[in-house]
Structures are given as C-alpha cells and as structure tokens.
C-alpha cells in the first residue's frame, strides 16, 4: 500500500472530469496541449506551481447528483471490468470532488475546506455558516462537529486518511472521530473535534482546516461503502451524543479558585468571630472582678 502523490491524485480527478464533464476535459487537453492523462496531470501541476491559473479558468464544479450517480454505478458494478487493473496507479476509477480547487492540492494530499454545517456543545441546534456569521468559535473544553465544504467520492481501490491541519492541532484542536474514509464512500466528511487548548479557536467558512490522503489497496474491494449511507448533513444521533455542559481544566481551575476564595472569606469570618468572642469573655471576666 502506498500514498498517492499529487500527480496521481490529480490524474484520478481528471478521470472523473472526463466521465462527467467531457467538454471540460477536452478543453483542458487543448489548453495544455496533451491528450495523455498522465502528462496532462503533470502539466497542470507545473502550471499551478508557476502561479498560473489556466486550470481554474476552464474547470467547472461537479454537481452532487452527478457524483451520486457515479458512486451508485460503481457500487452496483455498472462499469467495464477492463477499467479495474491490478495497480491502483493505472486503473480508471475516479476520485471525485464537487468543488475541486487546484490550489488545495498539496504534494501528497488535498486540503479540505470547512463546510457550512456545524454544531458546538454550547448551542442547542446545528448552525449554517451561510445564514449567519462565517466563523465557528470553539471554546476551551468544548466539543464540536464540523463538516467539509467538499462533497467527495473515494473509489473502491483506495481509502482516505483524514486529519486536521497542523496549524489547528498546535492550538489544541483534536480530532476525536475516525481517521479514515472507506472505499466507495460518497458524501461530506464529518469531523468530531475537541478544544484541549487554553484559548478559544476560531475557524472560518471555506478555510482549509482538514486534509485527506489516499492510500492504495492491493485490489478494489468486492463491495464498497453504500453510497446512500454517506453523510449529506449532520445526523441527529451525533448531536445527541455530545449535548451537555462542557468540562475543562480551565473552568475547573476557575471554579477551584472561587472555592478557595470563599473558604478564605469563611476562615476570616470564623477567626473574626472567635477573636470577638474571646475579647467579649475577657472583658466580661474583668468586669466581674
């Protein structure tokens, strides 16, 4: 098993574009002067590395319904068996994104952006970033459910390895959900996260927060993940499992400090009362003499 490089990731993306939007694929071949898909992927990456945007000017986003159809066809094995070759680097199974951004393609992974649906444990219900502020704030000790902006399809001969980007990990944000995406999966990807850091973490809509790498299998799975089971939004059962008050070291420390302050006040009151009582009895004893 090996991790796909950017060239092979893009090659698989191009296979998907060719299948769903052949007119777009043909324009790319003409623009980059290459009919060979391997060479086309190489030229697009070189163009991107030279800060040019010829790919962006031609590429058109895929519709989720188009991705669903491809995923269903492969799940039901409605394809030519000749497309499935022993090596994952040579077959014609596509990697699909509804909104592929060439700038998010890194050397061996693709950066996934923050989607519109999210939930944090201080809220009663999930929120939509397109209908409110474009930021998510996760306070220390708080859990959150985040979604990807991209709607993805992972082919049957690959599985995805997912993670938060290091820039958020170093702030204390931890992924507490799964770390892989099954072969055949189709939908948005959901991340359950926890802020273990000392400060609130702010995330912005469509900001690259996550990443996915593609690991090859020796051969395609016999039956991939059922496409209809892929996430389209945040399920209620995940929200129910996270509801409740947040507990973290900082809040516990604040509560402990308040308790210590209250104990000190009580101690001072007790000492004051004892001193007053002793003084009273000494004065009373002196008067009786």
Structural features:
single chain, 289 residues, alpha+beta, Deoxyuridine 5'-Triphosphate Nucleotidohydrolase, Chain A, 8-stranded antiparallel sheet, 3-stranded antiparallel sheet, 8 helices, 13 strands, 21% strand
Short description:
The chain has 289 residues and is an alpha+beta fold. It has helices at residues 6-20, 22-32, 37-49, 54-58, 64-75, 166-169, 236-242, 249-288, and strands at 96-97, 110-120, 127-128, 135-138, 143-148, 152-153, 158-164, 173-175, 180-181, 186-187, 190-195, 201-204, 208-216.
Structure description:
The chain has 289 residues and is of the alpha+beta class. The protein has 2 domains: 6-242, Deoxyuridine 5'-Triphosphate Nucleotidohydrolase, Chain A (Distorted Sandwich); 249-289. It is built from 8 helices and 13 strands. The protein has helices at 6-20, 22-32, 37-49, 54-58, 64-75, 166-169, 236-242, 249-288, and strands at residues 96-97, 110-120, 127-128, 135-138, 143-148, 152-153, 158-164, 173-175, 180-181, 186-187, 190-195, 201-204, 208-216. The strands form 3 sheets. Strands 2, 3, 5, 7, 8, 9, 11 and 13 form an 8-stranded antiparallel beta sheet that branches. The protein has a 3-stranded antiparallel beta sheet with strand order 1-6-10. Strand 2 (110-120) and strand 3 form a beta hairpin. Helix 1 crosses helix 2 and helix 1 (6-20) packs across helix 3 (37-49). The protein is elongated, with a radius of gyration of 29 Å. The relative contact order is 0.14. The mean pLDDT is 87.
